[in-house]
Amino acid sequence: MIRRLFRHVRLRRHTTTIQLARDLPWPAVDPHRNAFDWDDSEAAQLTALIIPMVPSDADHAADPDGMAGWRFTDQVTALLVSRYGRWACGWDYSNHFGGPVETWCCVSDSVGGAEETAERVVACLLEWRDWLEDIAERFEQLAPLPNANAEDRSWHLERAVTRLVTVVVNSTHADGGWYRLCGTTLTWFLTSTGLGPDEVRKAVEAAIGGRFKSHVAPATTLVDTVGEDLAIGLTGRGFYRER
User: Fold this and answer.
1) Which candidate, 176, 200, 196, 198, places its Cα nearest to that of 186?
2) Distance CA 217, CA 243 (A)
3) How far apart, in whole angstroms, are the C-alpha atoms of residue 224 and residue 135?
4) How far is CA 32 from CA 15, 39, 87, 137, in A?
5) Nearest 5°: phi and psi at 101?
6) SS3 124
7) Closest CA to 219 of 155, 166, 167, 168
8) pLDDT tens, per residue, the chain with 243 residues
9) Among 35, 31, 117, 111, residue whose Cα is nearest residue 67
10) Taking the mean position of all CA atoms in its chain, how far away is CA 167?
């Protein structure tokens, strides 16, 4: 799934501002807008850059506040964002925190030996990129046709919501605050169809409305209801269920 693009990409639009991945707008993470140069040479270079950043036993011993690991992940995020773009800040969005990255858990469990940790970071970056590319493909497949009437659009939106919620549940195992990624994914999808940010935000908030809970996979009937409510809220039509 990871696209190996062997061409030089100028990163002048990228910023080192650190944000949570779930707070980024779709254009900042859309793989079609954010090319990713990757090959074995780049993997080796990135690993070599990260190895000396990993806190040593001496660093941990001299760290009275126990924050050496957290500072390390912040530094890695800054490095990845400056090198690849803001989308890369999701490299450690792990299942533990309701994200789709399984290779990373948390600072206490995932930061260890220098080489091992550096390789784990690289694997997490690729896993996150792979997830973004997967949902981007799903967005294209699920989007309503531009000339769809209200009823057709409603049907497509309901189908998209139910399938995307299921994808997020499966990717996160409904761990942590998985519903936050769910809201983000639906927001990104609707944004990709051309809807404005205010309309999207209101639609997603109204449809989910606190119905999803941490560490609890939603029932199929609840997912269907959320999809139906969002579709009707955006189109005013609900006759698509007769199909």
Assistant:
1) 200
2) 27
3) 20
4) 18, 18, 12, 10
5) -85, 115
6) helix
7) 166
8) 433 332 233 333 333 445 789 899 999 999 999 999 999 999 999 999 999 999 998 888 887 788 999 999 999 999 999 999 999 999 999 999 999 999 999 998 999 999 999 999 999 999 999 999 999 999 999 999 988 898 999 999 999 999 999 999 999 999 999 999 999 999 999 999 999 999 999 999 999 989 999 999 999 999 999 999 999 999 987 654 544
9) 111
10) 12
Q: How far is CA 85 from CA 2, 28, 69, 108, 197, in A?
A: 16, 8, 23, 26, 22
Q: Where are the domains of the chain?
A: 21-134, 143-242
Cα end-to-end span (Å), the chain: 33
Half-sphere exposure (CA, 13 Å, Cβ side) for 68? Answer: 15
Q: Is the dihedral of CA 194, 198, 202, 204 positive or negative?
A: positive
Per-residue DSSP letters for 71-122? HHHHHHHHHHHHHH-GGGGGTT-BGGGTSSB-S---HHHH--SHHHHHHHHH
